[in-house]
Amino acid sequence: MEKTCKSCGEAFVTNKTQKIYCNRSCGENYTTRKRQKFQVLNDIAKGTKASITEYYVACDLMKKEYTLFRSMSISSFCDLVAIKDGQVYQIEARTGIRYEDGGVLNFPKKMRESTNCLAVYEQIREEIFYFDIHLEPTKLY
Ligand SMILES: [Zn+2]
């Protein structure tokens, strides 16, 4: 089928219905342009960005009255441990981005086996999303 590249606007032929860019670099350029449009954590050092994410997640959990523990070492198997009503969440905090309201939440999908919850800090709207071990959206109350 013939499609129009979402990035450069050129026509291209593909047999993949999901494909929206004519090639990989076109997709990357589009993402870069989109990221630059928003004042996100782009220019902040990686470690600092990770810490900012953890603090946002921590604040959300403390507001929800979880007893919260933060890892003392960056090599720990999870970033935060949140406990409430006998439930123990071993949380990994990630930075994510959603370009449009209600759009796809982009974040690194790989999850360590030793964690049971992924907390994603969406950096444009500053919202926190939680995911279970199967990467299914879940709510922490
Ligand atoms: Zn293109």
Mind explaining what this structure looks like?
With 141 residues, this protein is an alpha+beta fold. The chain has two domains: 2-37, no CATH class; 41-138, Trna Endonuclease, Chain: A, domain 1 (3-Layer(aba) Sandwich), CATH 3.40.1350. It contains two helices and eight strands; from the N terminus they run ββααββββββ. The chain has helices at 24-37, 46-63, and strands at 2-4, 11-13, 67-70, 80-84, 87-96, 117-122, 127-131, 137-138. The N and C termini lie far apart (46 Å).
Topology:
Layout (H helix, E strand, L loop, with lengths): L1 E3 L6 E3 L10 H14 L8 H18 L3 E4 L9 E5 L2 E10 L20 E6 L4 E5 L5 E2 L3
Parallel strand pairs: 5-6
Antiparallel strand pairs: 1-2, 3-4, 4-5, 6-7, 7-8
This protein binds zinc ion.
Q: Low-confidence runs (pLDDT<50, min 5 residues)?
A: none
Mean pLDDT, to the nearest integer, reads: 91
Write out the strand line-up for the largest beta sheet, numbering strands in chain order: 3-4-5-6-7-8
CATH secondary-structure class of the largest domain:
Alpha Beta
Gyration radius from CA atoms, angstroms: 18 Å
Short overview:
The chain has 141 residues and is α+β, with helices and mostly antiparallel strands.
Defining traits:
Trna Endonuclease, Chain: A, domain 1, alpha+beta, six-stranded mixed beta sheet, 2 domains, 141 residues, 27% strand
